[in-house]
Recover the amino acids of this structure.
């Protein structure tokens, strides 16, 4: 199969583990050069860089706390300095906190919203400003933004109110920016994964009763793999999806239509 992302330069937030890591590896296999940021997993990040360089692609990992606007802006600026430009932005970094609504602290709310929504918002803004700076003759067609959202941009997830609020925000941002960014030749779409085997689900994976109950609700009877998300991300990053913008693509083994609270 032809390399579907040959010559593309991609920036990924949260690339040292889970879904972000799978996307980094898969995009590199498809011919893209990869810049990613990570918050604290330097050993993991170094390994990713080496693995991707072995594929013959350029790769760099930058330490960055996406929850800090200045860090996110620096990640975009450093990527442009090192790679020359960015064609595709993957907003993947995210976290969730589990608490009854009446126990959610301001610190927990900020931790979740700062990364999942505020950080994503301003990194996206930095990417768009960068694309506006590139003379249109040098802008490769097909600037693309891919947000890793969640089925919980649509579905309630009791005891995860801050997470749901953040993903609902990502949903509306995706809808809104599709209109504002279309004249700039930039599309924006979200992927809404269901339950995926990643570190965010470590607790669930170690709780057989909960896992069993969740699998009962998933018509395809398995959790998703990070690679499942990466496959859809390749489609959204490639020219095959050029007519898609402002949309969320659900990837959940059917969970959304069968969801019951755990
Ligand atoms: C959450 C997981 C949850 C899954 C399905 C994801 O967005 O991060 O914790 O298992 O949705 O409910």
């Amino acid at each position: 199969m032809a390399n579907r992302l040959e010559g593309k330069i991609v920036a990924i937030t949260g690339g040292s583990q889970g879904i972000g890591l799978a996307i980094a590896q898969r995009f590199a296999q498809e011919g893209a050069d990869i810049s990613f940021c990570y918050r604290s997993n330097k050993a993991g990040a170094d390994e990713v860089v080496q693995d991707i360089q072995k594929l013959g692609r350029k790769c760099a990992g930058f330490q960055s706390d996406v929850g800090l606007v200045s860090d996110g802006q620096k990640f975009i600026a450093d990527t442009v300095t090192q790679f020359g430009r960015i064609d595709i932005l993957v907003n993947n970094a995210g976290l969730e906190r589990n608490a009854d609504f009446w126990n959610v602290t301001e610190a927990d709310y900020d931790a979740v919203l700062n990364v999942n929504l505020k950080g994503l918002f301003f990194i996206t803004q930095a990417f768009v400003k960068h694309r506006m700076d590139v003379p249109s003759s040098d802008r490769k067609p097909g600037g693309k933004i891919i947000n890793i959202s969640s089925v919980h941009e649509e579905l309630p997830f009791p005891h995860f109110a801050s997470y749901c609020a953040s993903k609902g925000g990502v949903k509306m941002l995706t809808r809104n920016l599709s209109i504002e960014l279309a004249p700039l030749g930039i599309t924006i779409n979200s992927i809404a994964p269901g339950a995926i085997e990643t570190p965010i689900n470590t607790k669930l994976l170690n709780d057989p009763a909960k896992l069993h109950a969740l699998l009962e609700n998933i018509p395809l009877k398995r959790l998703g793999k990070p690679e499942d998300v990466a496959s859809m991300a390749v489609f959204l990053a490639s020219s095959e999806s050029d007519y898609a913008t402002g949309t969320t693509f659900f990837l959940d083994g059917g969970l959304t239509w069968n969801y019951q609270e755990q």
Q: What stands out?
A: The mean pLDDT is 96. Residues 96, 150-152, 157, 194-195, 200-201, 204 surround beta-D-glucopyranose (CB under 6 Å).
